[in-house]
């Protein structure tokens, strides 16, 4: 407060508070990678655990692991397994949980490919086991070689250049492929085979300044090798922000009178911009950066001691076995077996204790709805998208950040152009004429205004916001807004009412920051294989919810939203739509009548909405002129720019589509296509937002051939009408992804052909729609199996009774109660 009262200007104070805090330097460790042929994970799992911790390795590649790798996993590591061509083969790549690992899906046996982040540079690990006398096509791996790749494993290949006395045929084959892909061999300190002078456990990489050391330990026939790179490492500790929210709230409360007075002398735009800048700067001012250990936790000392004891007994056993086979050897073998079992049990108990401690914390919080439990699991099991490090442009691959940014900018700028108007099409001409008339009317002063908003209405909206601390485009989070004292909300209401009375959506809310995600699970994506994510100002979402309330009141009052639509409306639930579809199909099957289902897929539904068509249709549907002006202002003059890494593109104009992430967009999409249901005639339509399903049932007749013929004709006719509607309102359909399904009771699936725009639709046996797996025989097994898989019940035999009790009390009990309510609802229906 002394800084605020120093007599400096508002701009001077906020500039001071916005100054970034100096972060302390973080300690960095070089990356170490262990490569070891264990010759059976079941017998050498503990040895592998001790090796990876003693060598301080963050990544382990274990070959010839066999099929027992699941019996024991490395604590604090995430393991990826690929089976081999026989029971003794297989590869495991283990990555420390202090790093982010994403598996690249392949169908190549004895091969695991993992992308690793959290290092100074992202790397790709390719773990290989190549058994003797088995062929391998190395070209299968060529497309997976990226800029920072480490290829390692047991190749069973010899070359004089690779520390072996001679070069064999496999060595020649591998050497040519390595040279072709510009990979370098990293030599160890000695050969890796104990039985010969050959060096067959090899490491290749295109990373500079890498070196390897062969360890003189281990009981398999291969010496373990550790590769290190000083160029690539990870932070053992990191800085993270700690915001003093108590001080933040106190300062807000002390300065609310100041901002109230400012709202009386400044116009809405200037007050709002200064106010949002103040919130962001204040948060920065009360933020301190603390150090946190980011490195993986080590094993407890007592387990480390037990591992050393097992190693001593194991070495003693292997020494005695070579010299004699008497009672002493058998006694040592039994001791080794007993100690190994004890250590495995201790490691398992250690992992169970950590899990039980977490569940106890959940229970002590008395969280009845299981929010903390599922929030924790969602962070662990949430789907991961591969980062974008390269883009494909035809046959060319680009990797420079600025080039990728420019390519994404060109692609999305072209996508943002308004749809092409067909001058020969009467409907297009009418829409253009009507749109120009409407925009001319809206440009004139209006006597009617949009209904004003009140402080209580905005307060209710704020209370319903999710309590997220992630910031929006304006560096302000939902959490900050929920901390606002009433005086700030009153000032916001005053700004909102100014913009509502003017029928104007502020221009500073119309700029979106676009970041892109990768749609692919493997390989280099093209620009059309990326998913754009728009970051908007958090306060704009409050104003959009105010608009949504007025638009929905008008639409619902005019009964514009069809009863077949369940999405984004009050009382509309996925469960309602699923039960409706399920009941209809079951009724038909009870009468032995097949049912045809069409699943229509729109291409980028919200992103392809025609602005002129939307405004004309809203006008024709009777939207109040003041609300229409507000909607037109909300749609018009929008801009965006691409942010990739530390590069940003130029701004480009958006002339098509509804703003992504807006609460108003889904409802306007529903109203825009409220007449789509009329294309279906007497057939049953089911809609949830942009998901459309059509059920077609034939009249009751004895002849199956007559029924199928009717379904084919009606199905194709409905597709024709839906396609004509989509063309008329420029809402393109992805015909290749639109499919059909026939539900039947007969032994053999009836043959049926449905066409849309000259394309024959694929007839599927199963289809996932609205989160439910629909099978042609209406079996519930796939959906139930999916639910069981998500909950991990199939692994319950490895969970102790105490763990099960904790799990039940912490989470499952609540969901069983909810399921019981749903069961009663189904019975009533």
Automatic annotation (TrEMBL):
Q: Molecular function (GO) terms listed? A: catalytic activity
In its UniProt entry, the species of origin is given as: Rotaria magnacalcarata
Q: Which domain of life is it from?
A: Eukaryota
Domain Reverse transcriptase: residue ranges: 498-774
Q: What is this protein called?
A: Reverse transcriptase domain-containing protein
InterPro entries named in the record: DNA/RNA_pol_sf, Endo/exonu/phosph_ase_sf, Endo/exonuclease/phosphatase, MIT_dom_sf, RdDP_mobile_element, RT_dom
């Amino acid at each position: 407060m002394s800084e605020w009262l120093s007599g400096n200007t508002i701009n001077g104070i906020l500039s001071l508070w916005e100054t970034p805090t100096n972060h302390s330097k973080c300690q960095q460790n070089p990356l170490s990678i262990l490569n070891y042929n264990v010759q059976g994970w079941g017998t050498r799992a503990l040895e592998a655990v001790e090796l990876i911790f003693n060598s301080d390795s963050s990544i382990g590649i274990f070959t010839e692991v066999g099929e027992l790798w699941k019996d024991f996993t490395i604590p604090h590591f995430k393991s990826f397994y690929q089976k081999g061509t026989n029971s003794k083969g297989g590869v495991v790549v283990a990555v420390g949980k202090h790093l982010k690992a994403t598996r690249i899906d392949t169908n190549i046996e004895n091969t695991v490919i993992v992308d690793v982040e959290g290092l100074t540079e992202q790397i790709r690990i390719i773990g290989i086991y190549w058994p003797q006398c088995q062929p391998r096509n190395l070209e299968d791996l060529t497309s997976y070689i990226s800029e920072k790749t480490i290829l390692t494993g047991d190749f069973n290949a010899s070359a004089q250049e690779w520390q072996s006395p001679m070069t064999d045929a496999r060595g020649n084959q591998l050497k040519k492929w390595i040279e072709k892909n510009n990979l370098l061999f990293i030599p160890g300190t000695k050969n890796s085979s104990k039985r010969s002078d050959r060096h067959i456990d090899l490491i290749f990489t295109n990373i500079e300044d890498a070196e390897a050391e062969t360890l003189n330990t281990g009981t398999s026939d291969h010496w373990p090798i550790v590769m290190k790179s000083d160029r690539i490492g990870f932070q053992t500790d990191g800085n993270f922000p700690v915001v003093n929210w108590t001080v933040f709230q106190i300062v807000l409360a002390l300065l609310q009178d100041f901002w109230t007075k400012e709202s009386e002398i400044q116009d809405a735009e200037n007050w709002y911009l200064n106010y949002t800048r103040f919130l962001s700067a204040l948060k920065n001012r009360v933020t301190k950066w603390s150090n946190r250990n980011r490195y993986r936790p080590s094993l407890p000392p007592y387990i480390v001691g037990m591992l050393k004891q097992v190693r001593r007994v194991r070495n003693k056993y292997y020494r005695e076995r070579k010299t004699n086979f008497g009672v002493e050897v058998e006694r040592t073998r039994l001791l080794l077996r007993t100690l190994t079992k004890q250590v495995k049990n201790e490691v398992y108990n250690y992992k169970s204790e950590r899990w039980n401690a977490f569940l106890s914390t959940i229970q002590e919080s008395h969280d009845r709805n299981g929010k903390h439990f599922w929030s924790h699991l969602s962070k662990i099991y949430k789907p991961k998208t591969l980062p974008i490090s390269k883009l494909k442009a035809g046959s060319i691959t680009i990797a420079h950040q600025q080039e990728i940014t420019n390519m994404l900018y060109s692609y999305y700028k072209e996508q943002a152009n308004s749809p092409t108007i067909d001058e020969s099409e009467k409907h297009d001409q009418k829409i253009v004429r009507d749109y120009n008339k409407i925009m001319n009317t809206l440009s004139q002063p209006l006597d009617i205004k949009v209904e004003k908003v009140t402080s209580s209405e905005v307060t209710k909206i704020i209370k319903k916001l999710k309590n997220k601390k992630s910031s929006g485009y304006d560096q302000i989070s939902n959490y900050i807004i929920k901390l606002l004292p009433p005086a700030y909300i009153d000032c916001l209401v005053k700004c909102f009412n100014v913009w509502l009375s003017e029928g104007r959506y502020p221009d500073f809310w119309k700029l979106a920051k676009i970041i892109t995600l990768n749609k692919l699970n493997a390989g280099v994506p093209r620009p059309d294989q990326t998913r754009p994510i728009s970051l908007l100002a958090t306060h704009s979402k409050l104003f959009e919810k105010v608009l949504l309330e007025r638009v929905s009141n008008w639409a619902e009052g005019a009964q514009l939203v069809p009863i077949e639509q369940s999405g984004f409306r009050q009382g509309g639930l996925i469960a309602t739509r699923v039960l409706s579809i399920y009941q209809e199909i079951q009724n038909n099957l009870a009468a032995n009548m097949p049912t045809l289902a069409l699943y229509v897929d729109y291409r980028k539904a919200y992103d392809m909405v025609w602005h002129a068509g939307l405004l004309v249709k809203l006008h024709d549907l009777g939207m109040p002129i003041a609300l229409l002006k507000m909607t037109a202002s909300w749609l018009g003059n929008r801009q965006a720019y691409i942010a990739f890494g530390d590069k940003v593109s130029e701004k480009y104009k958006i002339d098509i589509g509804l703003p992504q992430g807006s609460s108003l967009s889904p409802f306007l999409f529903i109203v825009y296509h409220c007449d789509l249901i009329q294309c279906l005639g007497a057939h049953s339509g089911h809609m949830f937002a942009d998901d459309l399903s059509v059920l077609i049932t034939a009249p009751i007749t004895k002849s199956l051939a007559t029924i199928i013929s009717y379904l084919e004709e009606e199905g194709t006719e409905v597709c024709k009408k839906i396609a004509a509607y989509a063309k008329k309102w420029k809402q393109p359909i992805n015909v290749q992804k639109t499919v059909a399904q026939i539900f039947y009771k007969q032994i053999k699936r009836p043959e049926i052909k449905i066409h849309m725009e000259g394309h024959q639709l694929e007839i599927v046996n199963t289809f996932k729609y609205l989160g439910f797996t629909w099978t042609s025989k209406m079996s519930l097994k796939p959906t139930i199996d999916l639910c069981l898989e998500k909950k991990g019940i199939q692994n319950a035999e490895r969970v102790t009774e105490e763990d099960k009790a904790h799990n039940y009390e912490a989470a499952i009990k609540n969901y069983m109660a909810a399921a019981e309510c749903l069961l009663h609802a189904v019975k009533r229906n």
